[in-house]
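Supplementary notes (optional reading)

For those who missed the lab, this is the record we used. Protein: AAA_12 domain-containing protein. Length: 123 residues.
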Amino acid sequence: MIFVDVVDGQERKQNASYVNPTNARFVAELVSRLAASAPMFSAKSYMDDRFDTERYKGKKGKGKDQDREKREKDREERIQQFLRTYEWGRILIVTGYSEQKRLLLETLAELPEAEVPPGLVSV
């Protein structure tokens, strides 16, 4: 959990609520960087050992190159299958103001889908 207090941000009254454009831009940049830095796995993705790493320990010796290549290829296939089916983590942005929520949604909508996959962020 991250709490952000943007030093240069200033709240201003809008309708019956408040907005902080500097905060909204900062949050959009933070979300973009978080999404770009690494895949965000859900804890559900780590509930079991899908790669069976123990199976590969201690498998050395002459004439085992073919077996090792097959095991490595099999392991790589399991990893790729895992990456296609793992649970994505999510980013939740919490604000106490309805107009700030609207501004955040607008600002985040401007980010390209390639940077921030759909469904990754909830406000």
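If you only remember one thing from this example: The chain has one domain: 12-122.
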